[in-house]
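Hello forum,

I keep getting stuck at the same step: I have a sequence, I want structure tokens, and every attempt I make locally crashes halfway through. Rather than fight my setup again tonight, could one of you with a working pipeline run this one for me? It's a single chain of 141 residues.
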Amino acid sequence: MRKCVLFTNEKTLYSFLIPKVKKENLQNIVDEFLFNLNLNLQAEGFSIDIISKVMLEYQEIGFAKTASKYVLGSMNELTFQYEYLILHREGGIENARMLGVNKHINRTIMRGIKYLHPIEALHDLLLGARQPRPNLSTSEF
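Reply #2:
Ran it on my machine without issues. Output:
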């Protein structure tokens, strides 16, 4: 049986879903996380320098269930949005273009981060609020 794994940063609510994860891949969840984080950051247009810096920060990783009700509530909402997008717009998990779906999700305004888009909050965190924010349009759909 394959599962999906949702990763959400508690500061930015930037999220990505890894579909069809095999049970044996859960044993190497850190590698799955880093590989998919790298892919998603590339798809978002972050420079190799920024991506390398982020990867260095994740040399030691720990995963835990969140104690934050706002993060948990946000993740529940994101799960609903992923389900809708994958089933109704992408035609199912087998057809889903996950980088595009993840990009779309991160352009949804989230109350938990003061009505910003997660990609804006991530951009501000990584590059500073003074830098121009990314284009919020998506052409994947």
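The beta strands are 3-8, 15-21. If your local run keeps crashing, start a new thread with the error log.
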